[in-house]
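Cross-posting from the chemistry board since nobody answered there.

I work mostly on the small-molecule side, so proteins are not my area. We synthesized flavin-adenine dinucleotide and want a rough idea of how it might sit in this target. Sequence and SMILES are below. Is it possible to get a predicted 3D structure of the two together?
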Amino acid sequence: LPPMQSFYQGWLFISACLKQRKCKQVLASTRKLHAGAEGSKVSPSAAPERLPFCRVTEEDLAFFRKILPGRTIVDPDLVEPSNVDWLKSVRGSSEVLLRPQTTEEVSQILSYCNSRNLAVNPQGGNTGLVGGSVPVYDELILSTSLMNKILNFDSISGVLTCQAGCVLENLSFYLEERDYIMPLDLGAKGSCQIGGNVATNAGGLRLLRYGSLHGTVLGLELVLADGQVLDCLSTLRKDNTGYDLKQLFIGSEGTLGVITAVSILCPRKPKSVNVVFLGCETFEQLLKTFQLCKGMLGEILSAFEFLDSECMRLLNTHLKLPNPISDCPFYIVIETSGSDPTHDAQKLHNFLEEAMTSSLVSDGTVATEEAKIKALWSLRERVTEALTHDGFTHKYDISLPVERIYQLVTDMRKHLGNQAKSVVGYGHVGKTT
Ligand SMILES: Cc1cc2nc3c(=O)[nH]c(=O)nc-3n(C[C@H](O)[C@H](O)[C@H](O)COP(=O)(O)OP(=O)(O)OC[C@H]3O[C@@H](n4cnc5c(N)ncnc54)[C@H](O)[C@@H]3O)c2cc1C
């Protein structure tokens, strides 16, 4: 379902043996998801015929070895992890992994592949959850993992410019030392790369506060399928000179070219951060809490996330993460971040008092110290991981009007019956405009 104005985002995760049919074009090639990584039977409709791309020859490898000495990987054991996605639901059969370090090398690779009619699959941290990061057949994998240099940070404007292969968490560490933060944060931050974040238009936990990458990404450097380098690496917040081409590449999943560098506007590190973990009896109460929260916390509200009791069960069972409050059908993680600890604490106190006295929430706990904040956040961030321990996960990332998010979970439970081991709902409750 396409995101729409004034709609809200929620994520649904379903453990079931279903076939995905999402398709993606990589540069010149048409791609669809394919057989399950664990060898499930190929559905005739799940994968297209392999298009008439050429197969890699010894001469091709000789060319790649010349431009990427020691970084043209053909050892099957080393290529294997790049052929399987994070959820282990799809598998490709590429025999070549290319690891460029510079834009010039990416350009040479794509120009050569274009002239030789070789299909290419760009790959960042391989944490994507819709199968787009791995090949369908034998496409060459172009990994940006070695393109991990920070190119510039302007401490006055807060604009960071870096290569596309920088790992999100490393960028966060770098910025925090300089009193700034990344405008996005996700559970996959330890592995996902900024280029992959841009290519997937990742939302994440801070979207409610800092908006989407369409607003925070100021510039991109790109290499098109024929090797042409497109320099849209502006660092200006206001740039109304002609077409804003970079927007086309945000969310393009590698279909239009390879992102090689990103400049992004980073907010100042908040001086005070509080995290609250609350329990609600119904989803309706959860939504009322969201409304109350927006009204009472206003400008300091930085995240509002939810998970259901089934998620909590999986977190307890598979990751041994204890529930910090009493058992409830729904749980909320609220984060505030601001510049005045006393002011923020007072606002939060007023909000909690109102939420408790009006019986919107039945239990809760507050964290202000870093260790407890991390522990509460991990209950939301590690749900995806807990699911992977429970069996094959079929996952939808969807945007729906906020009041209808959970209806989809209950409908799917009814629809799937005992065909699914568990059907769970969790995600961001926030405006996506
Ligand atoms: C635990 C977990 C939590 C997550 N949480 C969120 C979340 O909160 N919000 C959200 O939106 N997503 C979330 N995701 C999914 C999210 O899309 C990815 O984690 C991340 O954005 C992908 O980055 P990556 O570097 O791993 O890209 P990959 O997985 O390697 O690639 C993803 C896609 O981008 C393309 N691509 C990668 N790099 C480039 C490049 N340099 N140029 C062109 N194309 C490229 C690939 O071809 C592929 O189509 C989560 C995933 C996990 C595992």
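Reply from a structural biologist on the board:
Welcome over. Reading the output above for you: The first strand starts at residue 8 and ends at 16. The first helix runs from residue 58 to 67. Happy to explain the token format if needed.
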